[in-house]
């Protein structure tokens, strides 16, 4: 009985000293447990940064002036033409029984779809 009490006191004393010395936090404990699985935080952040950058698509070709105005649904064709200029390609469409017009801007990679003279869809390619 005395031996068991002595072992428990030593273990409790060791844990108390460890807490006093290291002042552990929950996030520190989680990081300590997951570090072997995920590597260092810097490596994870760097690999995530590379993944995001590799999947990123530029909104406009490099060196081209970009308007700060935004194209959004509901805009009139004249407003879009004022912001993006004349489209390289204009195609009439018939979707779900609706007459639509698709404007394609090849150099900026934008496709704008109009219905009744208003923007209903915007895509970046």
Structural account:
- The structure is a single chain.
- This protein has 125 residues and is α+β, with helices and mostly antiparallel strands.
- It has 2 domains: 2-55, no CATH class; 77-124, no CATH class.
- Helix content is 46%, strand content 22%.
- The protein has helices spanning 2-22, 26-38, 41-55, 77-84; strands at 89-95, 98-105, 110-115, 118-124.
- It has a 4-stranded antiparallel β-sheet with strand order 1-2-3-4, with helices on one face.
- Strand 3 and strand 4 form a beta hairpin.
- The longest helix has 21 residues, at 2-22.
- It is rod-shaped, with a radius of gyration of 30 Å.
Shape: rod-shaped
In order across it, which strands form the biggest sheet? 1-2-3-4
By helix and strand content, what is the structural category?
A: alpha+beta
Note poorly predicted spans. none
Q: Sheet with the most strands?
A: 4 strands, antiparallel
Measured distance between first and last alpha carbons: 76 Å
**Total number of domains:** 2
Any idea what the radius of gyration is?
Answer: 30 Å
Proportion of residues in extended strands: 15-25%
- Average of per-residue pLDDT values: 79
The H/E string reads HHHHEEEE
* Number of contiguous helices: 4
Strand tally, please? Answer: 4
- Name the helicity range: 40-55%
């Amino acid at each position: 009985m005395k031996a068991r009490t002595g072992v428990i006191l030593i273990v409790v004393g060791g844990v108390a000293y460890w807490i006093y010395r290291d002042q552990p936090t929950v996030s520190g404990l989680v990081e300590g447990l997951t570090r072997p699985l995920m590597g260092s935080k810097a490596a994870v952040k760097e690999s995530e940064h590379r993944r995001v950058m590799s999947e990123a698509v530029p909104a406009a070709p490099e060196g081209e002036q970009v308007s700060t105005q935004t194209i959004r649904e509901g805009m009139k064709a004249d407003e879009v033409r004022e912001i993006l200029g004349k489209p390289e390609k204009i195609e009439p469409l018939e979707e779900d029984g609706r007459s639509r017009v698709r404007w394609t801007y090849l150099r900026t990679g934008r496709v704008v779809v109009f219905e009744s003279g208003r923007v209903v869809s915007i895509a970046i390619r």
